């Protein structure tokens, strides 16, 4: 037998082995009697070559539901669980959290220190960080930061006033992102970014790069499935220039504050106290210290999560208010009535009284959730209650927030924007985990108070002074950018803005 024949047999052998491996893996759910979406070799239910948003990847699996707790799916060769029953979702997020406390998200602290933040860490490191950072997001701390957010909102108003004379078609996505960038830059880093005055500021530029340079979903899924291999190949989540910018910014901020003994009521001040082991809980107990890399990673997480999620929530709210003028009118009326009792001042107390504005934010997060899938990983074998199914240790569980929020069995006429869905009566009549805008359970969004506060102040400032209408460039129905793990308008957010 010649060498060519041997090589050919070797190649055929490898291909056959791979095929048989995938064939066996793709029978995983069938062998266990679990309903599943038929996979396609070699990507499973993920189709990276097609222009499809990840909400639709899990959504297609979710749509196979038939009354059971979940539907099986495949990402490459890995079987995954997609939750379809709210009782099961509640078990995963809350009741059986001890089994599902990990997310299993890829991070690489050696090559990419910013990736080792609280959202992506698991086990004891997550638990320790959560315990240290939770006290920084109390209602008392939010009250301290309120004035800073309100000051930036006034600059936002002044920026729009120069553009709207008396009306103009504006791209609100960029303007809102500049507002939230300035807010987070100030609250997280104590730095006046001035993105509103200088659109190409460094903070705005690098904040944009975080999303635009995000690795392809196929790489993220492979890295999540094979993290040790990904680390050997030094796979990064964030590009080196983005990482260098934020690491240097945190380093210089800490150096300046410690040298000059500068104290501010912001997130960075709290992180510095943690770094120096000076922060105490309500019982006067030390919370423990953070390394510099841990401080930088948490500051970066606060920046990215704060500017991107609040910005998109605001623009989707404005979009729906522009399409629903009666709702916009009712919101403006509430703002006027509440502010008339507070000398026209947007304050911590007046904002809290604006119940309808808060319902608008909740309904926006229902229809356009910032995190379209919640991810958990089984830490041990889990017998699913009221079924014969067992989720094996290491299996990823996807909770498809977008699909749940758009399920007509949970929300009647889900494509209709209706803030009254979040009246106390309707909330009481729904399942406790029917709304997952901030996640739920011990791993819910630690900064939800800040996110709501920032979005409230921004919306109230805008609706108090401006009226929003659709224009020829407004995308109806909404289309989303493919290839990123967030919801973002594909063609920007163009609206007609008029002075009230």
UniProtKB/TrEMBL annotation:
CDD domains noted in UniProt: CYP6-like
Ranges that cross the membrane: 6-22, 295-319
Listed cofactors: heme
Position of the signal peptide: none
Amino-acid positions noted as binding heme in the UniProt annotation, renumbered to this chain: 445
InterPro entries: Cyt_P450 (IPR001128), Cyt_P450_CS (IPR017972), Cyt_P450_E_grp-I (IPR002401), Cyt_P450_sf (IPR036396), Insect_CytP450_Detox (IPR050476)
A GO CC term assigned to this protein in UniProt: endoplasmic reticulum membrane
Pfam families reported for this sequence: p450
Protein name: Cytochrome P450
Subcellular location: Endoplasmic reticulum membrane; Microsome membrane
PANTHER family found in the cross-reference section: CYTOCHROME P450, CYTOCHROME P450 6BS1
A molecular function (GO) term: monooxygenase activity
Top-level taxonomic group: Eukaryota
UniProt family annotation: Belongs to the cytochrome P450 family.
Lineage: Eukaryota, Metazoa, Ecdysozoa, Arthropoda, Hexapoda
Membrane topology: Peripheral membrane protein
Keywords: Endoplasmic reticulum, Heme, Iron, Membrane, Metal-binding, Microsome, Monooxygenase, Oxidoreductase, Transmembrane, Transmembrane helix
